[in-house]
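TODO from last week: model 3-hydroxyacyl-CoA dehydrogenase.
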Amino acid sequence: MTSGAGTVRTVGVVGAGAIGASWAAHLLAQGRHVVVTDPADDAQERLLAFVEPLVDAESLDRLTFSPEITALRDVDLVIEAGPERLDVKRSVFAALDAVVRPDVLLTSSSSGLLPSDFQDACEHPERVLVAHPFNPPHLVPLVEVVGGRLTSPAAVDQAMTQLAALGKVPVRLQQELPGHVVNRLQAALWREAYALVTRGAISVADLDLAVANGPGLRWALLGPFATQHLSGGGGQGIAHILAHLGPPMEAWWADLSPATTLDPKMVDAVVQGTDAELADVDEADLLARRDAALAQLIADKAARGL
């Protein structure tokens, strides 16, 4: 890989869905030229409907749309945000590999697929990796960087550098895992949350209140290890927590819900509880207020060095 030291001026985005459009909005706000490709008939319309309220007119002038993947021939970085289907990924990456310069990274926003499972469709698999954003990418800075079996270490280093330069917070995963790391952590919480609601231990609304007004507040500022360390008090830190609260925590682990399946009873409990919680809520307004609060929180964290 030779372009890592160069500036990423133009980014190609494959897919104009929710993730691709959000990536485009972020990249335009970062001052980059963005070329979006998507073969769907209404793709350009959907893209503009998402992006126009988020960026100024000058930024929109740096946005190009084409239904043809060949439009990405001269980009400096590719972000694929297409369907989460392995057959589609293999086809798209093979096409990208044939069009885009060999020194340009080909990254996938896949939320759980392994890069090793589709990079071998390319002649240059060493430049293929996953760069999984946290939704929505135009607001949330996290990107998980995952190399595959054939990805070169230089490509991973290059991805970390380029993503940081694009205003993201990249984290390097040392292993390929289904769901990567963050989605696995979310899945662990959801599994127990769904089980607690299904068994009648708490309502959906109260569980949401508990997380949003308790641990979620601290998790938004520091990760689980740093949070636990600060809970130790008196300078004793996480070693004190593990020594004194470790045994009861192990007992809680043993009592957690076993392997859980989304059977009809669980699905009904979760869906009905969520519908009841949000019955009188304007979801578009809630989403807008959440996004505004997210933007303010991220700005406050940056101002405080968190």
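Done. The first strand starts at residue 10 and ends at 14.
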